[in-house]
Amino acid sequence: RRELWQIVYRQVEEAGMSVLLSTAYLDEAERCNEVILIHQGKLLDQGEPATFSQVVAGRTFQVSVKGMSHRRLQAELSRAPNVLDALIEGEAVRVVTETAKLPTLEQLFSKQALPARADVQITSVTPRFEDAFVARLKKRRQEPEVAISPLQTINVSKNDEVIRVNQLQRRFGDFIAVNNVSFSVKRGEIFGLLGANGAGKSTTFRMLCGLLPASSGNLAVAGHDLRSAAASARGRIGYMAQKFSLYTNLSVAQNLRFFSSAYGLRGKQQKARLDWAITTFELDAYTNTNAGELPLGYKQRLSFAAALMHEPEILFLDEPTSGVDPLARREFWARTNAVAEAGVTVLVTTHFMEEANYCDRLVIMADGEVLAEATPLAMKIRARTTENPDPTMEDAFIQLIEQQNKKEPDTAAERTSGSAA
Predict the structure, then answer these.
(1) 324 closest CA partner among 354, 288, 299, 292
(2) Which of 230, 265, 266, 359 is the least crowded, having the fewest Cβ atoms under 10 Å away?
(3) pTM for this predicted structure
């Protein structure tokens, strides 16, 4: 995306070209000279991005609570009556409030939410275009009630390693797509696989799901060796593909019924899960609509619901928010966080770097190998420089990739050549 923007800027500055851009990524909208905001087919406003941001001036804050996880903190702040938006930002949560005044603890937290002497920090931050966008449109739609029940909490130790990968390799002829990759994932974690296009993360992902056999190495999911018991492992996992892959000529209800049947659900149990999915993912108005005719955000909801029908222990999400708007992304991650809190392990690939903040730990891949494995905070600390003392996750990612490219230009060229062959 950075390379694309360099090309766009060059065309605008050197050739005098006018560019009309349609995007769901609001950091890209913030790069534009002027923005047209459209919602439900109507033009709401037009102007410079900074003009939109000024509307929420004095209403954007970063909140952190020592000893409280960022997921739980976000869930608590989302319920506060004065809060329009709560977004995980590193180890803290960024909030947009209704009023331009530093919020009190009583306005943000219920009495039960905080210990008696909690170390809470509330800091004013500069508003962004996305803050204004979400604050404006969220007034027109309610935050979804994230009800995971009757998804059962798994009452086992969260130190259990439910995914173990050791020296994993995948070859396509002479080309090595994944080379000696090793990592483990604990129960209830949200674990991220990040990498540029062609990094090998999707190939790794498919091997973990049992959709692609490994060339060598050891791979265990939910206690099953995927090289000898892939079918047993697949019954314990849910999978949501990057591209919408449900049956477009079947209705929402028919898709859910089919996938629940494929996982062995029958009778009252099936009906209970169908009712749960339709209610939890707010699909009531679309139950008889063909899946192919759904808006993108509702296709995402349906795919997510289908992946959870059989109450899996492990959930695989392959770039699940690609192309959806910020409101739909917030809904998606609210549901994902609730699933993780219920004890389900989540493995996610994403190219939207700030979504890495939702992960407990993550791996960054390049050229089929693991460049780094750490928490998002540790990744960003590594990327700190005098010029950039507070790097974003995207900054950390780019720095790692650039360092790798400087170290091994010959190897990268050989791999590209082998891929082309």
Answers:
(1) 299
(2) 266
(3) 0.84
Sign of CA dihedral 269, 272, 278, 284: positive
* 215: its two tokens: 């060339």
From the centroid of its chain, how far is CA 143? 18
Q: CB neighbours (10 Å) of residue 167?
A: 13
φ, ψ for residue 158, nearest 5 deg: -75, -5
Q: What single DSSP character describes residue 412? A: H
* 8 Å CB contact between 312 and 265: no
Smallest CA-to-CA distance from 85 within 128, 149, 23 is with 128
Continuous segment of H or E residues that includes residue 169: strand 161-172
Coil vs helix vs strand at 323: coil
Grouping H, G, I as helix, E, B as strand and the rest as coil, residue 240 is strand
Length of the chain: 421
Q: Tell me: the pLDDT tens digits for 307-318?
A: 999 989 999 998
Taking alpha carbons only, the member of 93, 99, 71, 97 closest to residue 84 is 97
Return d(Cα 76, Cα 58) in angstroms, integer.
Answer: 21
Identify the CA nearest to 90 among candidates 62, 129, 127: 62
Tens digit of pLDDT for each residue in 244-285?
A: 888 999 999 999 999 999 888 999 999 999 999 999 899 999
CA atoms within 13 A on the CB side of 264: 6
* Contact partners, residue 101, CB within 8 Å, separation at least 6: 58
Nearest-angstrom CA–CA distance, 55 and 243: 36
- The 3-class SS string of 45-89 reads EEECHHHHHHCCCCCEEEEEECCCCHHHHHHHHHCCCCEEEEEEE
Closest CA to 376 of 203, 194, 199: 194
Sequence-ordered list of residues with C-beta below 8 angstroms from that of 381, at least 6 positions apart, any chain = none
